[in-house]
Amino acid sequence: MKEYKNAPSEQNSGGEFGYIDSIYSGSGVDGKGLRVVVFFSGCNLRCPFCHNPETLFGQGTRTGVSALVQKILRYKPYLKRGGVTLSGGEPFLQKDFAIAVIRALAEHGVPVCIETNGQIADAELIAAAEYIICDVKNQENADLSAYDAFLSVCDALGARVELTNVLVPSKNDSEAALFALQKLYRSHRVSEGIRFLPFRKLCLEKYEKIKMQFPYFDVNEAEEEDILYAEKYISGI
């Protein structure tokens, strides 16, 4: 179920409101347990494998904290072992709004994690979340220094962190790429581990809808053996 489709809106001026693309209820992959996912509009990256291109170019819908929280609370009975995930787009671009939403949900006993691209190391927002899911975007760039900076802040705060990585054949499945990812993983307190996500093309319809060509259209999808190899490499087996 999705709500809040893209629509023109004014610029965000503070934490009392923000801009989101949609809400998805019933996710079992965006964090622990069953979750409501809030997709923030706007992103500071343009990853060629992005599965949510609609969040990149639309301004989103202006939404107040109270209105968003009330919509989320409809699903509270189903979130006993889960919670809410702020995703995107990039939630760290709307720091004040994200913090306000987290604090408002905390008053109702609803935990919130954040999915991020790890490019904005904001200590206040990191500390506000129950835990962080940091997706390492190493498909076109082998420089992981931004993630070192982000994870160093997480280390200092004692934040719970899970790393994710979209494994794309011929792009970031080489031994060199996996070695760099392994080094990053072992250099920080990644308490929640690392999870490889197989590259898929389920987003093709979204690209067609916004009249954009999917940059990785000709790239093969990842198979189970690709994921198993990457997992064994990272674990040192």
From TrEMBL:
Keywords: 4Fe-4S, Iron, Iron-sulfur, Metal-binding, Oxidoreductase, S-adenosyl-L-methionine. Its cofactor is [4Fe-4S] cluster. SUPFAM superfamilies: Radical SAM enzymes (SSF102114). The keyword ATP-binding does not apply. This is Radical SAM protein. It holds the Pfam family Fer4_12. Residues 29-237 form the Radical SAM core domain. The keyword Lyase does not apply. It comes from Candidatus Borkfalkia ceftriaxoniphila. CDD domains: Radical_SAM (cd01335). GO terms for molecular function: 4 iron, 4 sulfur cluster binding; metal ion binding; oxidoreductase activity.
